[in-house]
User: Which sequence fits this backbone?
């Protein structure tokens, strides 16, 4: 939704990649006889690595455009290692998933980081293969050399051997649980691959000390390794507890909150709880968004250790999150300031789920419904992103824009999508407790494995992640306030149609599309705010538009929502289907004439413009409150501006009334009569609606209708809240109009 779909621009590239894939498929089952000898592969890999390193600095300064391909999906291995048979490189067949087997390997090169992390690895027969590990942590989070490096021993489960884009042969691992790191003396590693000099057996105490030293150097992944080794030899309960407590810190630092929490002993801290355990448990719970539990643990901590000032500060923070979560009580001014400053704009706030719940619809799967009557402007959701990928728009240069091509769905997306797949995959793998809120989202007919864990690791199906993203991802601006201001200052004439930044909001994902929607989403950083745009009776389904309706028929209606597998059947779409092509072409012609009239050196001739507007209005047959007149409101607003600038308040107000009607509103009293101004029914909420209401405010004021003027300002503020998410910035944004 609102993401940069570049399928059309990159159709040729997609077709080329598809061709390569088809060619590769023809080799399925072949055992290649032309594999390069080990030395040659090694030399080539190392030269490549060197040249990559030397150009790295240069690349960092350039705006790089990476492209990555989602290959045809395959399921992760769900068999435990014990049930798999060992295989060797020379038996690998091309384009084949070697189900029922595992391949033990020893890494012989340092890693190269491209979209995947790549190394060369050898088996016990001294054959070498290129190994590509996808969806690994990014370099900022964990250095590639910490993930895979010379001498490490791995077991690749059900290896997928294929022809790479470069033409080389290699193993591609897309699922995190399909590769297992084991120690060089693991019995599943053949003798010849084992290290000649195995590391000396250390005591739990010395391994713990090594872990502590690694923590001191901020080498948290290393610390986890040392502590975990210490736990395999520790046998004194107190010592085990200390090691786990120390490891929980390293887990916290590496965002493995489930593991951190489990190491603190939560929820049973015993009769003599340890300060650090309580504090770390509270932190882990906080990052898992379990604010109530976090607050309980902190209260216990405060009771037991009243001098702990840090706990008090954290408790304050947790209490603010609880207020946000329970009552939707946000300091929106603060949120805006944070979104302006933080990069990436990922805010530390809780999710509020208002009077809505997920229910089944008749024809659209699940949907979100209001549980009680709400008013236009009411807050339905203020949701923190489950995952968010920031890619700057416009002036704020950014090197993170990726082209993601899916060869199965034949779709190309531009933006932070590739990063988002990795972020989500990692999040689910590291914190399985949060997985259900994501994995239960709509994913069409994709069927994934039902086994949740194997060999002590969670199974995360990368292709399920990709599929869920394709149906549920939202493009988003840095803040809707900034886009609103851009539109206001005419930097952008219309609302932006797509964004490079994107994210997943698991509650908002249940909202179905409708062009004539009754809610709107807005963003402040990675918080999505959904507000009602109409008064809604209890049990009404909440809808917003996935793509803003344009009112023309430049695209086949069947095509517009193709990627989501549905055809919109709202009144506007039905009307567009029934309307003859000649009518659309007539509308286009009138709009062109209006554009020419605007460009006239003598300014707009209002009489002529009124006639054109009337002609345009006549091309519509359905009542405007059922089928809004999308090509009409914009030029009508232009005319309102002209009358207002001339001080012709009566005509200005009349134009405002027509703008509102074209947008589908039903209104009373938008004239000089004594009837009070009232919106009987709200229509489409577009950015220029605020301006429209403010013109009404000015006109009423000038005509001596102070009450109506106030009402109009109230509506302007309400529309602003729907568009921007909050109204604390209303006065400053519209200072000029409100003077
Ligand atoms: C983001 S999900 C919305 C929640 C979804 N209905 C569910 O059951 O989880 C998007 C999917 O919902 C369905 N959908 C959304 N709007 C629809 C509409 N107007 N008509 C039919 N199906 C719709 C489509 O299957 C679409 O791919």
Assistant:
């Amino acid at each position: 939704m609102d993401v940069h779909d570049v399928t059309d621009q990159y159709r040729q590239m997609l077709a080329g990649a598809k061709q390569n894939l088809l060619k590769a498929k023809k080799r399925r089952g072949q055992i290649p006889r032309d594999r390069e000898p080990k030395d040659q592969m090694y030399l080539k890999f190392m030269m490549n690595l060197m040249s990559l390193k030397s150009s790295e600095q240069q690349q960092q300064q350039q705006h790089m455009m990476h492209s990555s391909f989602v290959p045809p999906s395959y399921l992760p291995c769900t068999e435990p290692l014990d049930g798999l048979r060992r295989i060797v490189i020379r038996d690998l067949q091309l384009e084949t998933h070697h189900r029922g087997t595992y391949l033990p390997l020893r890494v012989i090169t340092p890693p190269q980081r491209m979209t995947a992390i790549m190394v060369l690895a050898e088996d016990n027969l001294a054959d070498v293969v290129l190994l590509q590990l996808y969806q690994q942590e990014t370099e900022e989070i964990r250095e590639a050399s910490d993930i895979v490096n010379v001498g490490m021993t791995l077991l690749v489960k059900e290896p997928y051997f294929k022809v790479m884009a470069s033409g080389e042969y290699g193993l591609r691992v897309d699922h995190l649980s399909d590769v297992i790191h084991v120690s060089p003396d693991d019995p599943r590693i053949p003798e010849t691959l084992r290290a000649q000099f195995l590391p000396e057996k250390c005591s739990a105490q010395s391994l713990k000390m090594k872990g502590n030293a690694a923590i001191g150097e901020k080498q948290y992944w290393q610390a986890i390794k040392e502590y975990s080794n210490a736990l395999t030899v520790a046998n004194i309960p107190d010592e085990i507890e200390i090691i786990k407590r120390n490891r929980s810190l390293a887990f916290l630092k590496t965002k493995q909150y489930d593991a951190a929490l489990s190491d603190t002993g939560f929820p049973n801290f015993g009769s003599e709880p340890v300060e650090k355990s309580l504090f770390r448990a509270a932190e882990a719970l906080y990052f898992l968004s379990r604010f109530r539990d976090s607050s309980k643990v902190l209260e216990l901590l405060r009771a037991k250790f009243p001098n702990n000032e840090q706990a008090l500060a954290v408790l304050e923070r947790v209490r603010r999150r609880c207020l946000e979560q329970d009552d939707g009580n946000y300091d929106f001014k603060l949120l805006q300031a944070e979104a302006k400053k933080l990069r990436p704009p990922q805010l530390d706030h809780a999710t509020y789920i208002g009077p809505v719940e997920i229910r089944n619809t008749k024809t659209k799967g699940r949907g979100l419904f209001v549980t009680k009557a709400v008013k236009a402007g009411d807050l339905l959701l203020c949701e923190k992103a489950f995952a968010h990928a920031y890619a700057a728009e416009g002036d704020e240069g950014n090197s993170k824009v990726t082209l993601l091509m899916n060869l199965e769905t034949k779709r190309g997306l531009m933006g932070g999508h590739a990063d988002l797949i990795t972020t989500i995959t990692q999040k689910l793998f590291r914190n399985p407790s949060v997985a259900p809120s994501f994995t239960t989202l709509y994913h069409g007919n994709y069927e994934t494995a039902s086994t949740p864990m194997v060999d002590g690791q969670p199974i995360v199906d990368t292709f399920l992640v990709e599929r869920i993203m394709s149906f549920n991802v939202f493009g988003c601006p840095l803040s809707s306030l900034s886009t609103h201001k851009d539109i206001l200052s005419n930097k952008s004439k219309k609302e932006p149609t797509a964004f490079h930044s994107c994210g997943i909001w698991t509650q908002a994902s249940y909202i179905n599309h409708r062009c004539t929607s009754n809610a709107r989403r807005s963003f402040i950083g990675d918080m999505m705010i959904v507000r009602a745009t109409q008064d809604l009776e209890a049990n009404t389904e909440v809808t917003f538009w996935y793509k803003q309706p344009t009112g023309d028929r430049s695209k086949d209606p069947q095509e517009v929502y193709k990627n989501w597998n549905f055809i919109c059947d709202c009144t506007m779409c039905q009307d567009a289907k029934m309307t003859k092509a000649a009518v659309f072409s007539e509308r286009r012609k009138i709009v062109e004439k209006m554009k020419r009239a605007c460009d006239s050196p003598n300014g707009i001739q209002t009489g002529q413009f009124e006639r054109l507007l009337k002609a345009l209005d006549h091309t519509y047959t359905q009542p405007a409150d059922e089928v809004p007149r999308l090509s009409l409101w914009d030029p009508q607003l232009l005319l309102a501006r002209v009358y207002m600038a001339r001080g012709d308040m009566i005509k200005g107000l009349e134009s405002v009334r027509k703008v509102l009607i074209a947008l589908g509103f039903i209104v009373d009293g938008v004239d000089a009569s004594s009837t009070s101004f009232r919106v009987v029914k709200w229509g489409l909420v577009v950015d220029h609606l605020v301006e429209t209401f403010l013109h009404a405010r000015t006109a009423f004021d000038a005509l001596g209708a102070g009450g109506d003027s106030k009402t109009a300002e109230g509506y302007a503020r309400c529309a602003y809240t729907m568009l921007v998410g909050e109204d604390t910035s209303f006065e400053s944004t519209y200072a000029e109009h409100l003077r």
Observations:
- The mean pLDDT is 92.
- Residues 533 and 685 are 7 Å apart (CA to CA).
- The chain has four domains: 36-193, 204-288+290-332, 351-385+505-562, 580-738.
- The longest strand covers residues 101-107.
